[in-house]
Design brief:
Blueprint (H helix, E strand, L loop, with lengths): L13 H18 L4 H18 L8 H8 L1 H44 L2 H27 L16 E2 L6 E2 L4 E3 L4 E3 L4 E3 L4 E3 L4 H21 L1 H12 L19 H37 L3 H16 L12 H9 L6 H7 L26
Antiparallel strand pairs: 1-2, 3-4, 5-6
């Protein structure tokens, strides 16, 4: 029908017109004596089919239904992780600060007063170098955005469309539900950084894990003798029994010495535990870097390996250029001196490439080898 004063008409949707057409056909059949049972059943079936078309398509499967059912759980986990990220970052800063304070107040004075001059120089250089590398890379890893695909360009090479962002998704790009955006070369979302690990900060994350592990090993080894003495001092100085409390005896250690003993024990236990945990994590990421993979791609490639194995084929990672070349790409090493200036010293140089296009070891015409 035409609206008053307007030049356009209301048009019923195709689905509604089909429903009306079926209703008219059912009424005509009912009037002509066809019987209402079959027409009513057919109309009911059609109504169910129409309702099902609003939420069902050919791509719907059990995984889609499970995702829909667990969507509230995913939402809660994502939001809790996002808010807890701030607490985790604060905890990391607090623990690093406590270790630094204990080293400067308890460990370093012993080194300066008892160690020979060469060892003093070594500890001053090594300890402060590790401290600078840890602080620099943690700051850069938490504050550097991992990178997202451009949304204002239509010529971005893409391999699929993100179902959440509804934008073209380049190769090695994945959607992070916690950050609510697509991340270039996404590795994972790290709550200890409160940030995603992607193309622009992957090097900072790995360098932080590596130097943090080395710093924890350094603190554990340097304070092992002081830990033994402090632990024995705490264990062998119990309070006197009641029968001997008639004559008050002075304590074996002062409050300052007791506090120092507990601080040394806390330092050694903390650094040793973190060294083991970070050692396993650093080893895992080292293996991934040597293979030219990220954590997300590792799971995808494993499924692809099993699928192609059943077809009698062998999967080849298109981004694996050899272990040494993979490490050069990771640290953006272009000449031999870069191993010192870009790996052993703080450097904020950008990674190789834009994170959108990648060099593959084979052509797209022959991605698999039989």
């Amino acid at each position: 029908m035409r609206l008053s004063g307007g030049r356009w008409t209301w048009k019923l949707s195709r689905a509604m017109r089909l429903v009306l057409r079926r209703c008219r056909a059912w009424r005509r059949g009912h009037k002509q004596g066809w019987g209402g049972g079959g027409g009513a059943g057919e109309l009911c079936s059609y109504a169910k089919l129409l309702l099902r078309s609003l939420y069902y398509n050919s791509l719907t499967n059990s995984d889609t239904l499970l995702d829909c059912a667990f969507e509230p759980v995913y939402w809660i986990v994502d939001n809790v992780t996002r808010w807890f990220g701030v607490a985790f970052v604060s905890l990391v800063v607090l623990l690093i600060s406590s270790v630094v304070i204990i080293v400067y107040t308890c460990v370093l004075p012993v080194i300066l007063s008892t160690y020979p001059a060469p060892w003093i120089v070594w500890h001053l250089f090594c300890g402060h170098w590790l401290l600078v590398m840890v602080v620099f890379h943690y700051y850069k890893a938490t504050t550097t955005h991992p990178g997202r695909p451009p949304k204002d360009k239509s010529d971005v090479p893409a391999v699929s469309i993100c179902k959440k962002c509804i934008v073209p998704k380049p190769a090695r790009t994945h959607h992070c539900s916690i950050c609510n955006t697509c991340i270039l070369k996404m590795d994972h979302h790290c709550p200890w950084l409160n940030n995603c690990v992607g193309h622009l900060n992957h090097r900072y994350f790995y360098s932080f894990c590596l130097y943090m592990m080395l710093a924890c090993i350094y603190c554990s080894v340097s304070s092992r003798h002081m830990f033994t003495e402090a632990y024995n001092a705490i264990e062998v100085s119990p309070s006197p029994p009641p029968s001997l409390r008639v004559v008050p005896s002075p304590p074996s250690f002062t409050f300052r010495e007791t506090t120092a003993h507990k601080a040394i024990v806390f330092l050694w236990v903390l650094t040793s535990s973190v060294a083991v945990a970070l050692g396993a994590l650093t080893l895992w990421h080292s293996i991934l870097i040597s293979r030219g993979e990220t954590s997300v791609e590792r799971h995808i490639n494993r499924k692809e390996i099993r699928r192609l194995r059943e077809l009698g084929k062998v999967f080849r990672n298109p981004y694996h250029h050899g272990p040494l070349t993979n490490w050069k790409i990771m640290f953006s090493v272009e000449k031999p001196s870069d191993w010192v200036t870009r790996v052993l010293l703080p450097s904020s140089h950008p990674p190789i490439g834009d994170g959108i296009t990648w060099d593959c070891v084979y052509t797209r015409k022959d991605p698999m080898a039989i």
